[in-house]
Amino acid sequence: MKIKTKRVYDPVEPEDGTRILVDRIWPRGMTKDRVHADLWLKEAAPSTALRKWFGHDGARWNAFKERYFSELDGKPQIAERLFGFLEKGTVTLLFSAIDTRRNQAVALSEYLISRHSGQKN
Questions:
Q1: Over the stretch 103-117, which tens digit does the pLDDT of each residue have?
Q2: Alpha carbons 11 and 26: distance in angstroms, whole number
Q3: CA 104 to chain centre
Q4: Can you tell me the distance from the alpha carbon of 51 to that of 104, in angstroms, rounded to the nearest whole number?
Q5: Cβ-contact 41, 22 below 8 angstroms
Q6: Which of the 8 DSSP states describes residue 15?
Q7: Using CA atoms, how far apart are residues 121 and 104, in angstroms rounded to an integer?
Q8: Contact 99, 56 (CB under 8 A)
Q9: At 120, is the pLDDT very low, low, confident or very high (cuts 50, 70, 90)?
Q10: Residue 18 CB: number of other CB atoms within 10 A?
């Protein structure tokens, strides 16, 4: 299972595999051709309320992940759909946030890895 995360503003590379945008809001100033996403899975993004609460405040990162994971637990079809793409090869989760270490794509990647590991036990 190979999951990557990448800003939508970064160049497209062949090793990106399936590119999935996981922002609830379309990235500012980007056209569909520039994003080059195979899928816009906005329902995988955190709720608007959670996104606004987090506000990319690093001090809230762990609490954000807990709340976001809880939201994802309530929508198991999202993880199932993403696992379907992962069975076929690399998946790159696209995001527009400036912070490349603390954003919903990174959190979603952690969520998928933890759930995949849990399935094998």
A1: 999 999 999 999 887
A2: 17
A3: 5
A4: 9
A5: yes
A6: G
A7: 26
A8: yes
A9: very low
A10: 17
Q: DSSP code of 23?
A: -
pLDDT reported for residue 1:
83
Total number of residues shown for the chain: 121
Q: What is the mean pLDDT of residues 47-72?
A: 96
pLDDT band per the 50, 70, 90 thresholds, residue 26: very high
C-alpha closest to that of 30 among 7, 4, 56: 7
d(CA 107, CA 61): 9
Do residues 95 and 103 lie in contact, with contact meaning Cβ atoms separated by under 8 Å?
yes
Q: Coil, strand, or helix at residue 5?
A: strand
Residue position matching structure tokens 């995949």: 116
How much is the average pLDDT of 50-75? 96
Distance (Å, whole) CA 79 – CA 89: 15
- Owner of token pair 């590119």: 19
